[in-house]
UniProtKB/TrEMBL annotation:
Gene source species: Natrialba chahannaoensis JCM 10990
Gene3D superfamilies: translation initiation factor eif-2b, domain 1 (1.20.120.420), Translation initiation factor eif-2b, domain 2 (3.40.50.10470)
Name this protein carries in UniProt: Ribose 1,5-bisphosphate isomerase
Active site, renumbered: 137 (proton acceptor), 206 (proton donor)
UniProt entry keywords in alphabetical sequence: Carbohydrate metabolism, Initiation factor, Isomerase, Protein biosynthesis
Note: Reaction proceeds via a cis-phosphoenolate intermediate.
Lineage summary: Archaea, Methanobacteriati, Methanobacteriota, Stenosarchaea group, Halobacteria
Length: 359
């Protein structure tokens, strides 16, 4: 086994860096899936760490956790997963620390899967035979409710919102069709019209704040307001790993702003800004020509691409978790029970950090 080249600068394993890149670029996406991948990456970091002493091992692990944490800011399942794993790291030797990290990550992943399936069974109780469910984005927690309903013989149909700009609605449509659910795919702007045909709005969550606000894919809040106006109940399917502990102490949830090119390609930007310049300027822009890049930065055409929005609790009928169904206003009691007063950053949680503090 190689020795650690520089124990003061622990190397993050390339597989962890790859997972972080996949999360940042959304090849790995969805709050629960991100949490699962982050826990798996920490186990990989532990498994492959070349550290020869406990302090170096701990630095390795914390560096990996930090790299994963810094990928996307909104889904709290990511820091909650890192915190869960790091809290279970214990032992006096590298071998013991490694073993406990891997076991803790495995436990986390198993519990995540179990929580989703329990949540699904609870959520399915809200769905009646023949109900039509309108979905937004793609949520494995929301789909778990539909899957459980189908398993108990309940017939469900779905109206699936496309979900611009990344069209995660296509993933939802594909998975629902695989389950045999009749699907009507609509553009986001058609949602209010089709609410007349829906019995439920069913969405997931990236984070849930202490006041019961739900942070989910951009467009959720408008959908919920329209659903309230049309008398369609809004159900949020969210494992407790989506509860955001920092909001108990007054912090707000950061809303991720993503790249403008998810909304407007460079070519489309040129079409808007200089339609008369024709194909030549389009191709230089697409090639990433430096002059074009600098003119873009000086442009007065601004594209904003927030990935999430906040739905106030008054527009939500129920938050369904693996611990039961809650009115949004009462979710804080569950948060206190589960998290206590936790506010530390996930990489500060590692038990062995106490050892490095003395150095
Ligand atoms: O954990 P599950 O229920 O799978 O997904 C929860 C939420 O994560 C997704 O975010 P993104 O597509 O990663 O930006 C959507 O906002 C979805 O509702």
């Amino acid at each position: 086994m190689e020795s650690d080249p520089d124990p003061n600068q622990p190397a993050v394993d390339p597989a962890v860096t790859d997972t972080a890149a996949d999360i940042a670029t959304m090849r790995i996406r969805g709050a629960a899936t991100i949490a699962d991948a982050a826990a798996a990456a920490l186990a990989t970091q532990a498994e492959r760490s070349t550290a020869t002493d406990p302090a170096a091992f701990e630095r390795n692990l914390r560096a990996g956790a930090r790299e994963l944490y810094e990928t996307r800011p909104t889904a709290v399942s990511l820091p909650n997963a890192l915190r869960y794993v790091l809290r279970g790291v214990e032992g006096e030797t590298v071998a013991a620390l490694r073993k406990s990290t891997i076991e803790r990550a495995d436990t986390f992943r198993t519990e995540l899967e179990q929580a989703q399936s329990t949540l699904g069974e609870i959520g399915a109780n809200r769905l009646r035979d023949g109900d039509v469910v309108m979905t937004h984005c793609h949520s494995t927690d929301a789909l778990s409710c539909i899957e459980a309903a189908l398993e108990s013989g309940t017939h469900i149909e779905a109206i699936v919102k496309e979900t611009r700009p990344r069209k995660q609605g296509h993933i939802t449509a594909r998975q629902l069709r695989e389950l045999g659910v009749p699907v009507t795919l609509i553009v986001d702007n058609a949602a209010r019209r089709y609410l007349d045909e829906a019995d439920h709005v069913l969405v997931g969550a990236d984070s849930i704040a202490a006041d019961g606000s739900v942070i989910n894919k951009i467009g959720t809040s408008g959908l919920a307001v329209n659903a309230r106006e049309r008398g369609v109940p809004v159900m949020v399917a969210a494992q407790t790993i989506k509860l955001h502990p920092d909001t108990m102490t007054g912090h707000t949830v950061a809303i991720e702003m993503r790249d403008e090119q998810e909304v407007l390609s460079l070519e489309e930007r040129v079409e808007i800004e200089s339609p008369s310049e024709g194909a030549e300027s389009r191709s230089t822009a697409v090639d990433g020509n430096d002059d074009k890049d600098s003119s873009q930065s000086e442009s007065d055409l601004t594209v904003e691409n927030p990935a999430f929005d906040v739905t106030p609790p008054r527009y939500i009928d129920a938050i369904v978790t693996e611990r039961g169904q809650f009115p949004p206003e009462s979710i804080v009691t569950l948060m206190r029970e589960l998290f206590g007063e936790t506010t530390a950053e996930p990489w500060e949680e590692c038990v062995c950090s106490r050892q490095t503090d003395h150095h």
